[in-house]
Amino acid sequence: MFCPRCGKQNDDIARYCQGCGNPFEDAIRTSPGPEVTRYAGFWERFVAVVIDAVIISVATGTVFTATFGAGVAISFLAPWLYEAFMTSSEWQATVGKRVMSVVVTDLNGSRMSFARATGRHFAKYISVFLLGIGFLIAAFSEKKQALHDMIAETLVIKR
Fold first, then answer.
1. Whole-angstrom Cα distance, residue 14 to residue 113?
2. Could you point out which of 64, 71, 83, 109 has its C-alpha 20 to 30 Å from the C-alpha of 53?
3. 13 and 78 share a domain?
């Protein structure tokens, strides 16, 4: 605890300042409250996805359509590897998510594994098959989780 009069740090249980003798009985003793988790909203996540889509499209040369053969494989593998490696890295985010100041964590707020990141990526296809409804769930769920986040047991939080 810091003395409000002289600024000296004292033990939390001190009744008087060790520097100036100021009594602490009248001082309000507060402890820091629990950290509030701020979940990333639907639009922050949407903008991050758009940024990542542009990056992947430019990097793979598949701006709007995939070609046959190797182009199809690249257009399938590149987004998966990009997302899984980036979100399971120390960054815990793709470039788009970093721009939007959000990270992906497991339910404990820890960095997720590559396997969980892979599961999260492929769970997005379920939302695609459901005509995007799985993505829209993020706008209404308590922790702003989309369907793929619920399946993979992940959170997208603001940093």
1. 45
2. 109
3. no
